[in-house]
Input
Amino acid sequence: MSQFRAEFKCIAGCKGSYPLDSIIYRCPSCGSLLEVSHDMEQLKLRNGEAWRELFDSRNGTNKWPYGSGVWRKKEWVIPGINDENIVSMYEGNTNLFRAKRFGAKLGMNDVWVKMCGTSHTGSFKDLGMTVLVSMVNEMISRGKNIKAVACASTGDTSAALAAYAAYAGIPSIVFLPRNKISIAQLVQPMANDAIVISLDTNFDGCMKIVQEITKDNTIYLANSMNSLRIEGQKTIAVEMAQQFDWEIPDVVIIPGGNLGNVAALGAGFKMMYELGLINKKPRIVLAQAENANPLYLSFLRKFEEFSPVVPKKTLASAIQIGDPVSVHKAIKTLKEFDGIVEQASEDELADAAALADKTGMYTCPHTGVALAVLIKLVEKQKISKTDRVIVISTAHGLKFSEFKVGYHEKRLDGVSSKYANMPIELEASADKVREVLERELAARRA
Ligand SMILES: *Cc1c(COP(=O)(O)O)cnc(C)c1O
Ligand SMILES: [Zn+2]
Output
């Protein structure tokens, strides 16, 4: 047994705590979400420097389970879990991309992109799913009757759940909004043997169904209202700090839909701060698509109220959410981190993604939202050109080929495709080719 302890507690502060292997998603007294609460007094027995050294010493190791960027911080994630029950694909460990040419276009020299999509199923959802599925695996090994894990998804959660469940040999059920996710995202859970249910509704509608289905406690709910996932996702804050030798950036920009990930990011920084690993907190910027912007609207009113919206179609399909389940956690986080919420239109997000691609990235539309927000906040002088900024890239561009092709073929609604770059079809003549190359190279020099 670990000397460290963690349990579920109500985020609204109600009394009571629940073991991490209990099947519970909301506070029984007030209905708020739960969070994993760590015994900070125990954790403080090791000082900040000692924690930094411990985590650094595990970098690059293959020793189970510390080869995972998540489980390398096991004491801060789920300290009590049996290593043998951990379901890991050595997720995390993603690179920080120095966005040199992209930054230069904004007059900046210190812009970085955290490539969370360079991961087993192509999105940051792997970070949380390793924790949730590991806990389910532990519960099954302790004799709990769990028949399956289930989630509603805008595409990436289901891909991650299906893969981790298949790895562990646990059946998975995924509810997807019909025709609202990319082909790659639909094929992933199919390939990983999930029961794939395509519903004639949007994400919020799928969410209602999965909550209904999982009232039967033998089907375990894997959505991010399940706070185990937050524990895995928060490790990206630690990983980024570590990648900068524990220096903290000025600003972190993250795209948000259901708003679990921004809460996770804040939780990671907060834990490092409280345990003395770092002595500064970054400003956190939450980026939303204008077509699904309930938190942006709330931010304009200083978070005094929050109203769900009916989300419109957006190319950033993974954040097409109007009624985010983690909104209260997100608002709390943004208040603590001097937060800003900014939005991006379809045209802005698509051009920002394409501009980034022109400088060597291969961005998904959600990363496009975050990059567009960076551009806007620099223009509005809310981000200084000398700031060190990290943009969280949430998924791999290869999952969104329809978006890419549609952009370059100028087929996307409301998108002008300023940077479209189509193949040039020519007869097989060297003279013709030379002529075209001269023209094209001149255009690129201009
Ligand atoms: C899930 C997801 C998001 C949004 O994360 P939330 O925790 O729902 O705010 C953003 N981008 C991608 C690619 C995602 O899969
Ligand atoms: Zn409560």
About this structure: The two ends are 65 Å apart (CA to CA).
